[in-house]
Amino acid sequence: MELKFIDGGVCAVDGVLASGCREGKYGVGIIISKDSNAAAIFTSNTVRAEPVKLTEKVMRDGKLSAIVANSGNANCFTGKEGMDDAVRMAERVSEAASVDMDDVAVASTGVIGRRMPLEIIERLIDDAAGRLENSPRASRELAEAIMTTDTYPKEVAVEFELKNGKKARIGAVAKGSGMIAPNMATMLAFITTDVDATPSELKKALRRAADESFNMLIIDGDESTNDMVIITSTCRSGRMDGNFQEALKVVCRKLAWMMARDGEGATKSFMVDVVNAKDSEDARKAARAIAGSSLVKTAIFGADPNWGRIVAAAGYSGAEFNPDDISVSLESDAGSVTVVRRGEILAFEDTGELELAEEIMKEKEIRIIVDLAAGSSGATAYGCDLTYDYVRINAEYTT
Amino acid sequence: MELKFIDGGVCAVDGVLASGCREGKYGVGIIISKDSNAAAIFTSNTVRAEPVKLTEKVMRDGKLSAIVANSGNANCFTGKEGMDDAVRMAERVSEAASVDMDDVAVASTGVIGRRMPLEIIERLIDDAAGRLENSPRASRELAEAIMTTDTYPKEVAVEFELKNGKKARIGAVAKGSGMIAPNMATMLAFITTDVDATPSELKKALRRAADESFNMLIIDGDESTNDMVIITSTCRSGRMDGNFQEALKVVCRKLAWMMARDGEGATKSFMVDVVNAKDSEDARKAARAIAGSSLVKTAIFGADPNWGRIVAAAGYSGAEFNPDDISVSLESDAGSVTVVRRGEILAFEDTGELELAEEIMKEKEIRIIVDLAAGSSGATAYGCDLTYDYVRINAEYTT
């Protein structure tokens, strides 16, 4: 399949409008994709923010015309008043952008347990609604409006060919696992496309793509009360097929990798490729355990080629393998080296392997390849290092 | 049941001998409890150190006469030579202390992936074997010999009455989840008693007690390749009964709490009491998720009464509850305060509750009580804060 990265974020898709604006620590972004088929996945946390509840209800019919997202306040643990506030946001977008309020999704990220500053948010909604347009600039402003402690806006867009040769596009913006104290690390991603697909086809495709991207991203293991990923389709291009699924996976993986790179306090990011696992469940478990291990994360921070921690994390992941058969390799711009081959340590003290491994670990982006030699399934997980700054960001805040 | 804490560690039990000595970063401790019934639990990590494999085999008959433990080298991922080294340690103890080598358990903690410095270890074994005695000092030297990055030795001993009025004792030493780079955080605990119990009774009692203590202790979520808890009984006192089970739980909980207090880089420790959960599985899940949350742990470090992170961690734990019914209280030497009552936030900005909550969080030991209002089961988990020093200890080492 041919696929190329293009500019424009969500606005790479024809007919999609976007805008965003900020006022102090608050921001509002709007996406308009009128009368679109749509699907979403939400946090599996039992504690769910009010906008999550509202959006889930609104999307039951698989239709959306608009998405409004705010940063600065998560509208979580805010009870009946919080739900009223979320509804009020949808109403305001409905009025300002002339869409049915039952087709407006609402997403929030920020501090939890505080009432929404509705006056500010409504002013920002009006402002954003007045500036909606289909342009790379508009998508960029949207991406910036939903940032919290993110250090850069996150956008992706791709153009690819469906199997019948027809061109199609997918665009996306996201906010990463930066955290605005005292909130959880919320992940929001909004994806647009022109591929012709029913809501249930979109849902299936989104779930599959998320399973190999967002669900394999581990910043600190804490799952937010506000996570939300939405995909909308104008259905103006050809029928969905395997190429769409593939392109959607590329987009979601790219977003996940951007979020890993921008994890709170992170100085380095890494991906864990587990190969030759017994089955895909085992591959996922092992990759996630390694990417989530505090010991592996601090080793990455310290540029320590600590294969022992990697092997031990695989060991407690629940994946089946024989420690005598495991192999571990490290890769980065500095090179590639196998440190453990079929249970045998190659990177002992004073070996060339160890020297190279140390050079590899000094780079900003590192790839860990773990061969379990137990089957033929694989999985990739994304993570970032655990640093002094992570502790600082999350400890220094006092309510 | 009457129970009092006494001195003496493992030597509080009549007939038990102990000793320990160190040389640089290496230490060896020996416990002799001749012809004892015994049981053990081992790490569930797929990757297991050689002494774990050996000891599991040795203990199949439920009998032990001696335990030898060394610090400084974990003898893990060392293959056939590593097993030979573990066997050699057992042999040496067997010769020096005149016990059957099939009745010697071996435990190791320290660096992984390196050959044992057998010459040093054997010298230490001989030295320790020559100084075996039944005294508080001997138990203390044993506890010191097995320390790695622990900042203090860990011992407990209790005397209690069995139901028939007969006095019985349990003694214990442990090393905590301090970590010797680049090893995992290894937990070792050796428990002695005079209660008359079969190996399978001991095993059942130990498993139960561990489920409410060691298995609820979360330092960094990484499970070591070397964890081992052994109990031996001289069987000189009365038959085991419910009082023994209760006393064993007290001992194991005390050890777990000591380890939490001495977690790597920890400045504060906390316990999480989950009450009124649907069932005990749910209570355990919620308590563990809260104690293991990086966000809760950094909040404890920052003295932040961040109930939002506590509630959210309960939310992703998988425990069933209605967020509108949850209550959260905080307790320490500074007082006790309810910050969330049945879903309603009491500790809003500028309330007396918030002020008190902040005072409470400044103490060294904190108790978090979470009422799920979903049933009548409870569980307690033990944790420590996540600090700059945790990152430093685990990042600064380079292989």
TrEMBL record, chains A, B:
Cellular localization per UniProt: Cytoplasm
Residues at the catalytic site: 186 (nucleophile)
Keyword match Methyltransferase: no
Keyword Acetylation part of the UniProt annotation: no
Domain of life per record: Archaea
Pathway, per record: Amino-acid biosynthesis; L-arginine biosynthesis; L-ornithine and N-acetyl-L-glutamate from L-glutamate and N(2)-acetyl-L-ornithine (cyclic): step 1/1
MF annotations from Gene Ontology: L-glutamate N-acetyltransferase activity, acting on acetyl-L-ornithine as donor
Residues given in the record as substrate binding sites: 148, 175, 186, 264, 394, 399
Residue numbers marked as site, Cleavage: 185-186
Secretion signal, residue range per the UniProt entry: none
EC number of this enzyme: 2.3.1.35
Matches recorded under InterPro entries: Arg_biosynth_ArgJ, ArgJ-like_dom_sf, ArgJ_beta_C
Site feature Involved in the stabilization of negative charge on the oxyanion by the formation of the oxyanion hole, where: 109-110
Keywords of this entry: Acyltransferase, Amino-acid biosynthesis, Arginine biosynthesis, Autocatalytic cleavage, Cytoplasm, Transferase
Catalytic activity reported: N(2)-acetyl-L-ornithine + L-glutamate = N-acetyl-L-glutamate + L-ornithine
Subunit structure: Heterotetramer of two alpha and two beta chains.
Family per similarity comment: Belongs to the ArgJ family.
HAMAP family, per database record: ArgJ (MF_01106)
Function recorded in the entry: Catalyzes the transfer of the acetyl group from N(2)-acetylornithine to glutamate, forming N-acetylglutamate and L-ornithine.
Name of the protein described by the UniProt record: Glutamate N-acetyltransferase
Native organism taxonomy: Archaea, Methanobacteriati, Methanobacteriota, Methanomada group, Methanobacteria
Gene name of the encoded protein: argJ
